[in-house]
Amino acid sequence: YSIFNRKERLLLVFLGTFAAFLSPLTANVYYPAIVELSHEFHVSTDLINLTITVYLILQGLAPTFIGSISDVIGRRPAYMICFMVYFAANVGLALQNSFAGLMVLRCIQSAGSSGTLTLANALVADLATSSERGSYMGYATLGAFFGQAVGPLIGGLLNAALGWRSIFWFLVIFSATVFLIFIIVVPETCRAVVGNGSIPPQKWNISVLGYLTGRRFLQPNPSIPVPESPRAPRRPINLLGTVQIMFSKGAGCILLYTGFLFGGFYTQIAMVPVNFTEHFGFNSRQIGLCYLPFGLGCMAAALATGKAMDWNFQRIAKKLNYPIVPGQQNDLSKFPIEMARIQIVIPLAFLGCVTVVMYGWMFHLTKSLAAPLVLLFFLGFSLIGAFTAFSTLLVDFYPDSPGTATAAANLLRCWMGAGAVAFIGPLQAKIGSGFACVAVAICWILSSPLLWIVWKHGPAWREERRIKAE
Q1: pLDDT one-digit tens code per residue, 227-270
Q2: What residue intervals traverse the membrane (predicted)?
Q3: pLDDT digits over 373-420, tens only?
Q4: By CB distance 3.0 to 4.6 Å, which of 35, 47, 82, 198 could disulfide with 43?
Q5: Is residue 182 part of a domain?
Q6: Full DSSP string of 370-398
Q7: Which residue segment(s) compose the domain that 74 sits in?
Q8: What CATH number corresponds to the domain at position 280?
């Protein structure tokens, strides 16, 4: 399936997750400065929250183009586009002096950073078979959720020490560093361009080290003779591919449920500054620290869920006498991959419903700081664990266009998240945090039958797509 051995694949996935760190870092580094920005531009915090809404709208839209481009011309060119747009937007944000400028440049910043998470998942599809994809997907999303953990902390420290502009100058320096690493080191992995890695890419698509050494920086394992693999079928860039996946059977149900899940997810992280300022009188530095348990829960979920998915895949394969050949892609036409992934999601979704209700009421029932922080950890663990499993299932559904499939998930969850963030502030002001969180849990419960539908009908729908593609 891939000429790269395990260590080389882990290195590539690590670099992909290092780049994916940019997207959640950019979103979360901003939260501790919300109150200061409202004072700076003389607007309400609800208006500043609108910059989060437009950020999420573009975060959903931009990967639809990047994912489709990367599936056809390669991962490296798509990464370069993301980095250049992102770098320019951060320079503009650090220099601008108006609320309108903040709003517009946050949109451009989102367009640049959001594609990196989509590309990290596509990188996993290039390198890992379905039997080991869970663990690699966990590694790929680890950096993204590390951004959930340290983004608010970095933002809080920078804002308190140097002011809100220093946040964007930090992002300028960090993105430039990652950009250089990718230009110098990372080879092309897209299967439509290089097959299993044995076919040379276009000359303009070779890393700097590839030019300097006259070969790929990462070499195939010399002890294993690997014949040259044909490229995956080349297709024209289909900018409507994301929409087609959103309205397809099976994938559409998964995407809709993920949208509801992440709508609730974004409402909770957006309201952390308000909740902890009102109830504990925290400043931006202290609010940044409050995000740390949430981010740590996200990181733990990415690793634990990945391992659990691989374990469950192998358990079901053994039960069904389904052969697994290491290093080769498995034929999933007769394998219940929907069941294997959704079995991991169900307990996580239940934990998320219970946790979000407890978290909302905890501010009214106790003055303890530890209680909401512990619940933030479990909230992050449950929601991101479920999201990791869904992301893996989408790649299983569309192994030849993983960038487009991941972009479809990104589009729906971000747009539904944007609507939820715009709605949660006025709702919580009217009915309180406890009932607002109950409303979130009810939405999750009412949308849960979508999981049963995919579990029951998913294999038949997947076979329909396979026959239609042939």
Answers
A1: 445 555 555 666 677 778 888 888 889 989 988 888 888 788 77
A2: 47-66, 78-97, 136-161, 167-186, 254-274, 286-305, 344-363, 369-395, 407-425, 431-455
A3: 999 999 989 988 898 888 888 888 887 777 788 778 877 877 787 778
A4: 47
A5: yes
A6: HHHHHHHHHHHHHHHHHHHHHHHHHHHH-
A7: 6-220+239-323+330-469
A8: 1.20.1250.20
